[in-house]
Amino acid sequence: ALISLRQLLDHAAEHGYGVPAFNVNNLEQMRAIMEAAKETDSPVIVQASAGARKYAGAPFLRHLILAAIEEFPEIPVVMHQDHGTSPAVCQRSIQLGFSSVMMDGSLREDGKTPASYEYNVDVTQRAVDMAHACGVSVEGELGCLGSLETGMAGEEDGVGAEGKLSHDQLLTDPEEAADFVQKTKVDALAIACGTSHGAYKFTRPPTGDILAIDRIKEIHARIPGTHLVMHGSSSVPQEWLAVINEFGGEIPETYGVPVEQICEGIKYGVRKVNIDTDLRLASTGATRRFLAENPSEFDPRKFYKAALQAMKEICVARYEAFGTAGRA
Ligand code: G3H
Ligand code: 13P
Ligand code: ZN
After folding, report:
1. Ligand 2 centre distance from Cα of residue 22 (Å)
2. Fewer beta carbons below 10 Å: N end or C end of the chain?
């Protein structure tokens, strides 16, 4: 059944668990997520980015998610739009039937340039007015996502476009968060607490508190009724990096957010945990390995299946680690 983000995260808050939000672009990802959810009895958040809409097209994405709901009617599913760059983008997703949208007003409409606080409040307020009138939840974002180690916002190639961010910019301010939530009435808030998007988060194996756990606590204490969201939450599994590189890939040494650090965050108010990169790495590793080990095979379903299985294992592991398992 389709449910809103508010419905699911209220339940998660009441019972103290977190929910991974996996990005979806194609059938194999969608199936991996649903089969893992079924196996672990977990509720689901699937999210579609602008890149996903560009790749698959909005109608295909919409029907992919609706097909998942039809095939797995017993599993609650939140259909979420990831990183909307304007109220107009959110409006189109609401019209398509999404039950939740992210209005990311921390950046200007180009999705790159940091926006002013006033701009963020304005666009987020407008998205919330529209969405709430339709029973749709809204996630906002306050602060600049960036690695506490490298100070970089994170990009595909590991080179940030905007240059190094200062320590202060890398952490959401609790007082500003309180003001933002009071003005915008968002259901969930993405915060900057030391994570960054993509595979290149940390250059050394992270030890101890690589995230600003105290800051998460402080923000949660100021806005206890607003669900916190952790973007850039891939753990960048070293096993999959090794498989990719063993079978012809070239990915430099890099580290992600340890699952235990995410679990610390969940203890202190994080409810939605965004994961995209980990499924990409598992899928690429499994595909490279399958093709290298089966050079005469040319039925794509064979390597799609290997990729699906690899992604499913990651999903199962996250559902179990975050306490989502058994909550459907
Ligand atoms: O936040 C970004 C997600 O990882 C989606 O990435 O825009 O390449 O689909 P994408
Ligand atoms: P990762 O790149 O760490 O998987 O983060 C994904 C994300 O935050 C999507 O919004
Ligand atoms: Zn994100």
Report:
1. 8
2. N
| 68 Cα: distance to centroid of ligand 3 (angstroms) | 23
- pLDDT value for 162: 58
Provide the 10 A C-beta neighbour count for residue 3: 20
Question: Ligand 2 test: best mutation among 147, 231, 254, 262, most atoms within 8 Å of CB?
Answer: 231
Whether the Cβ atoms of residue 190 and residue 231 lie closer than 8 Å to each other: yes
Task: Calculate the CA 230 to chain-centre distance.
Answer: 7
Any residues with Cβ below 6 Å from ligand 1, and which? 23, 49-52, 82-83, 197, 276
Q: Which atom of ligand 2 is nearest to the CA of 23?
A: 9
Predicted confidence at residue 154, as pLDDT, reads: 78
Sketch the domain layout of the chain as residue ranges: 5-321
Active-site positions read: 82
Average pLDDT in the 218-237 region?
98
Give per-residue pLDDT as tens, 93-116: 999 999 999 999 999 999 889 999
pTM: 0.97
Torsions phi, psi of 137, nearest 5?
A: -85, 160
pLDDT digit string (tens) for 246-287? 999 999 999 999 999 999 999 999 999 999 999 999 999 999
Q: Please compute, for residue 174, the number of CA atoms within 13 A of its CA located in the half-sphere on the CB side.
A: 13
ipTM of the complex: 0.98
